[in-house]
Amino acid sequence: MDGSREAELPDCRTCGACCSYSREWPRFALESDEALARIPERFTDRRLHRMRCDGERCSALTGEVGVRTGCAVYEVRPDVCRECQPGDDACLMARRRFGL
Ligand code: SF4
Ligand code: SF4
Q: Which InterPro entries match (predicted)?
């Protein structure tokens, strides 16, 4: 990827749209029990096998969408969050929802 294309990609640190788009998104998939155990329990909904959400917003999301955001469990976040790439279709759909 050249530098100019990279410069066009949205910056997750001032976004957070995909983490606030749907409570159905931050679902666990094929993570091992050990990987899931590393995510602090207060941020998870083990019964529903996903991150705990407040409305549509993941409880681990910090900050204000579209301004400054972070992930409180970044180092141990679920697989689906690792797969989400800035600029892909899901990213752009989520950003549109928030007018970004
Ligand atoms: S992947 Fe896209 S929608 Fe998700 S935080 Fe990054 S820029 Fe925003
Ligand atoms: S765990 Fe982190 S990266 Fe995944 S949806 Fe929640 S805030 Fe976003």
A: Puta_zinc/iron-chelating_dom
